[in-house]
């Protein structure tokens, strides 16, 4: 079985994750690239041995293309992903699924009507450490989960984006809208939902544009730091921090505190999971190092999506999962703006 794929948007995420992982997948035989900037599409087509489409319509009306990766910027996800599903394509959409609940619901509805696969790239679910941690939690090896804390921060998207400058679309309110919350925070909200088999129900938060400036030297109009308190439907409470100003090193760690001990995930480079029991016993797991902006390893997302399409399996991250995480992120931003506790 050979699969032809179309990629919409040829920025860093397409160049460093989607295209190389499709290229490496044995079931993919052709990639067609589209970007509003034709040169970017041509560059990736050249790098990965693909071809170029002159419009999104050309991709969506090509009956030989089965899969679309929507790597456009945030404000376009609901348009391109919904259109692709309506055109009978399976869709892998970058996160967040959209910027509003209304638009995200349009994508989810399009998927249900089309019967095609929709997966949203909340890639933290795919790491071996997070999958092993979920198993430990589900088996109640340390008893029930009581509290948790999670963080995701790095030096900011201007160090990773396609143009490597402060003009990055991530800093533009009209394009990224959600700032660090939509870039990094949404990953950790999805991860908490996944690990705990639970959903966040109440939030409070503080936010600020503490350090980042745009290409004119003005403070950015979206947050570069958010710290929040979270309570789940099942009564677990925890904290989360999301940052674009961790300038020394990236932090992508999560700690789960249970009745009989602690689970530390990506807390130390040497061990991806550390289990510390109430009695002080330690069990360390060496699984694999997490993807960082400086360490691009195979995320497993593309391979998993191809397998869903080939074997008619349900994606690990559904449209409903993505919508549920988006609701929490929007609640966190509302809580920070209004200085209130918000119920999702």
From TrEMBL:
It comes from the Bacteria. Residues 3-122 form the Gfo/Idh/MocA-like oxidoreductase N-terminal domain. Residues 130-263 form the GFO/IDH/MocA-like oxidoreductase domain. SUPFAM superfamilies: Glyceraldehyde-3-phosphate dehydrogenase-like, C-terminal domain (SSF55347), NAD(P)-binding Rossmann-fold domains (SSF51735). InterPro entries: Gfo/Idh/MocA-like_OxRdtase_N, Gfo/Idh/MocA_Oxidoreductase, GFO_IDH_MocA-like_dom, NAD(P)-bd_dom_sf. Pfam families: GFO_IDH_MocA, GFO_IDH_MocA_C3. This is Gfo/Idh/MocA family protein.
């Amino acid at each position: 079985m050979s699969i032809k794929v179309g990629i919409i948007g040829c920025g860093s995420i397409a160049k460093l994750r989607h295209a190389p992982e499709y290229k490496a997948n044995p079931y993919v035989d052709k990639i067609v690239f589209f970007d509003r900037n034709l040169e970017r599409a041509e560059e990736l087509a050249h790098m990965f041995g693909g071809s170029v489409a002159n419009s999104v319509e050309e991709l969506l009306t090509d009956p030989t293309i089965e899969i679309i990766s929507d790597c456009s910027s945030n404000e376009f996800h609901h348009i391109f992903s919904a259109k692709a599903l309506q055109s009978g394509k399976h869709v892998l959409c970058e996160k967040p699924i959209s910027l509003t609940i209304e638009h995200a619901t349009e994508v989810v509805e399009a998927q249900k009507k089309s019967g095609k696969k929709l997966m949203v790239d909340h890639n933290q679910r795919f790491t071996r450490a997070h999958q092993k941690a979920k198993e430990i939690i589900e088996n109640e090896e340390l008893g029930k989960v009581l509290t948790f804390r999670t963080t995701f921060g790095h030096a900011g998207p201007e160090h990773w984006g396609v143009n490597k400058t402060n003009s990055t679309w991530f800093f533009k309110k009209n394009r990224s809208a959600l700032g660090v919350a939509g870039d990094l925070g949404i990953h950790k909200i999805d991860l908490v939902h996944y690990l705990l088999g639970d959903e966040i129900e109440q939030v409070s938060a503080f936010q600020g544009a503490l350090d980042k400036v745009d290409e004119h030297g003005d403070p950015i109009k979206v947050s570069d730091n958010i710290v929040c308190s979270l309570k789940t439907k099942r009564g677990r409470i925890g904290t989360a921090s999301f940052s674009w100003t961790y300038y020394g090193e990236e932090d992508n760690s999560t700690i789960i505190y249970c009745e009989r001990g602690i689970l530390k995930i990506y807390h130390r480079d040497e061990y991806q999971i550390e289990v510390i029991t109430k009695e002080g016993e330690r069990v360390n797991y060496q699984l694999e190092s997490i993807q960082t902006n400086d360490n691009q390893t195979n995320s497993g997302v593309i391979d998993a999506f191809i397998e869903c399409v080939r074997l008619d399996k349900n994606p690990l991250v559904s449209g409903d999962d993505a919508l549920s995480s988006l609701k929490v992120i929007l609640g966190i931003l509302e809580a920070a703006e209004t200085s209130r506790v918000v119920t999702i």
